[in-house]
């Protein structure tokens, strides 16, 4: 029988365990850490979660997370609005922006097609991407989904939808990482490296 005094702590750990990448052991550590925090710090932590949830929403254009109606990237006239980089999640936008090399815009799908997980094309932000292509002067769409089965399936599905619209559809090159050693690369990585080779 459960100890009723410990129940709130168990519930807190279970809530932490719902977060991606957090196992039950880590969730319990986090729950115990919260118990060691001052009440004002706990309140600030809870307020930060609620504020983010209430104030942050999808950009009306690219579906990235923002506090405004339109995110800073879509609202920036210095960006090249003729190129859209399609990514799985807002985290991918952050990764590209860290490079400082990409000057186009983005479109966030918020997932990948995965029939096994019950995720169909209708569950993703594909319709809003098609609507953008009809209202914006887009010349190229870069498919930047991960090189997984789901990522490839999603990229191919969207590419098929875009082909009749006369838009250039490209795919991120995949292959050997910088600093990688050939003998340790798997067959698929080597094949992709060969397939995506460039003239020097």
Which terms would index this structure?
200 residues; alpha/beta; four-stranded parallel β-sheet; single chain; two-stranded antiparallel ribbon; 7 helices; 12% strand
List the helices and strands and how they pair.
Layout (H helix, E strand, L loop, with lengths): L6 H11 L6 H13 L2 H17 L1 E2 L6 E2 L13 E8 L2 H10 L4 E5 L18 H9 L4 E4 L5 H14 L5 E4 L15 H9 L5
Helix pairs in contact: 1-2
Description of the structure:
This protein is of the alpha/beta class and 200 residues long. Helices cover 42% and strands 12% of the residues. The protein is built from seven helices and six strands; from the N terminus they run αααβββαβαβαβα. The strands form two sheets. It has a four-stranded parallel β-sheet. A two-stranded antiparallel sheet has the order 1-2. Helix 1 (7-17) packs across helix 2 (24-36). The termini are far apart.
């Amino acid at each position: 029988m459960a100890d009723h005094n410990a129940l709130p702590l168990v519930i807190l750990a279970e809530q932490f365990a719902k977060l991606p990448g957090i196992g039950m052991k880590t969730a319990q550590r986090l729950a115990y850490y919260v118990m060691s925090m001052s009440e004002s710090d706990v309140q600030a932590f809870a307020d930060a979660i609620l504020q983010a949830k209430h104030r942050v929403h999808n950009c009306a254009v690219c579906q990235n997370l923002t506090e405004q109606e339109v995110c800073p990237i879509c609202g920036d006239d210095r960006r090249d609005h003729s190129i859209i980089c399609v990514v799985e999640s807002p985290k991918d936008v952050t990764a590209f922006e860290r490079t400082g090399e990409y000057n186009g815009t983005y479109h966030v799908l918020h997932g990948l097609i995965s029939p096994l997980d019950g995720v169909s094309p209708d569950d993703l932000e594909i319709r809003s991407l098609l609507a953008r292509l009809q209202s914006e002067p887009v010349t190229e769409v870069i498919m930047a989904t991960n090189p997984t089965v789901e990522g490839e399936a999603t990229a191919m599905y969207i590419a098929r939808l875009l082909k009749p619209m006369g838009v250039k559809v490209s795919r991120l090159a995949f292959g050997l990482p910088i600093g990688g050693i050939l003998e340790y690369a798997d067959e698929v990585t080597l094949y992709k490296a060969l397939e995506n080779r460039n003239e020097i």
